[in-house]
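Now produce a polypeptide, keeping tokens residue-aligned:
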Amino acid sequence: MPLDYKLIGTNIKTRRKELQITQEQMADELFLSLSLISKLERGVKAVSMDTFYSIAEYLHTSIASLISDPNDPGVQHNQMIQEIDVMLEDLDNRHLRIVNQLMKTYVAQLREIYPAENAADRNSFKP
């Protein structure tokens, strides 16, 4: 599957704006030209993997996030898992056990409300 440079550019721009970074700041801090940043965000220019990695690192994200369609349900699923992981990072074991039990109870109740048609469906359970 070929890379979609317009999608990559949109993702770079979106992430840059989320971090409230200007194109000028990004160009200066990465030692790249403003023109290159503009072309990347418009999807009309490709860069080396080293530069692409530097951009991802600078934007505190992964290359996978920058090349993925954020509207893809699989991507959305992974992003939610990452958000949950970040929220749980600083909890101590006691609080993690509480959250774990709450999640088990919640999922069990959802499965009662939305029973899976067969056991295989439980792995892809979505209310």
Residues 63 and 117 are 37 Å apart (CA to CA). The mean pLDDT is 87. The longest helix spans residues 93-113.
